[in-house]
Specification:
Length: 140
């Protein structure tokens, strides 16, 4: 099954399940308020970490170095902010994991290692060859 289709169906199903479970424990109003509170604090912290990443990137530029980690980290923070804006507990948890620098570094390291392994697998081309000789029995 296509991964994107599975995500489109699976993520809302998980969120609805968590809404029902949490709502039955703490009540509907408290569940809605918890969603707004986590979104507010998550976005506030994402903004704070975004400024820290921007400051770190500017110091890299001043040193005349390419801020590759800071660029990738900024994109990850933007994705985390999007996850925090979306209502739900699972997306909030994933967004918070991406926002915190230690877990963000761990996640980015895992993703980059996986991509490097995929590149190594594609460094060769399969094929067949055949020695061709001309009329004087010389290889061409």
């Amino acid at each position: 099954m296509n991964t994107l289709l599975l995500a489109i169906i699976g993520i809302p199903a998980i969120e609805i399940y968590l809404f029902i479970k949490v709502g039955s424990q703490i009540g509907a109003f408290n569940t809605v308020m918890l969603i707004f509170i986590t979104a507010f604090f998550g976005i506030f912290y994402a903004r704070y970490e975004g400024f820290n990443t921007l400051k770190s990137g500017m110091s890299q530029v001043v040193k005349n170095e390419l801020p590759i980690y800071e660029i990738i980290s900024g994109a990850a923070l933007a994705f985390a902010a999007l996850l925090l804006i979306l209502p739900g507990f699972a997306t909030d948890l994933l967004g918070l994991l991406i926002i915190f620098p230690p877990t963000r570094k761990l996640i980015l390291r895992k993703v980059s290692n996986k991509q490097n392994r995929n590149k190594k697998k594609q460094d060769y081309i399969n094929g067949e060859y055949e020695d061709v000789k001309d009329e004087n029995d010389r290889k061409i």
